[in-house]
Amino acid sequence: MRxxxxxxxxxxxxxxxxxxxxxxxxxxSSFILGMALCAMLTACGFHFRGQAAIPFQTVHVEAxxxxxxxxxxxxxxxxxxxxxxxxxxxxxxxxxxIVGESQEKHILSLSSGGKVREFELLxxxxxxxxxxxxxxxxxPGEIVLRRDMTYDDTVVLAKESEELLLxxxxxxxxxxxxxxxxxxxxxxx
Length: 189
Hints:
Blueprint: H1 2-19, H2 28-43, E1 58-62, H3 68-80, E2 84-85, E3 94-110, E4 116-130, E5 141-150, H4 156-184
Parallel strand pairs: 1-2, 1-3
Antiparallel strand pairs: 3-4, 4-5
């Protein structure tokens, strides 16, 4: 008798488990809603980031001394557009001059004991965009990026690594902003 009850209960459990399995059937209204969402996204001008449409055939990037930003910008132009990077100003349709580049670190807040709790990190890039003769193609500009970083003096090495990563992230963001600004410039005719 006991064996029969156990089998019967096991059968009931299997039925309960079988009835709980989800059925993923696409309802027609879900399909219509999805299509409407896709249509709205395309109507608003949304598109995936592709190649940058820089309106110059050739560009020369100038920087005083060594600049990681200038190297990253050249690499991004080569990889993400049809524009060629040239070695001299005379061959270029446009010249991007990196006038200045700086990293700054400011105390943002202190604890009640006078210890630093937060820092503000700033990354600045000042630039000019000219033609090969030095005539401005756009107004001189500056890209300024800020990040806040909490600080704990018990994990100094980890916070130094975090600071380096944040500055690297800001440089990458600055390169993307520069590409967008270059793509908005109207070339001189």
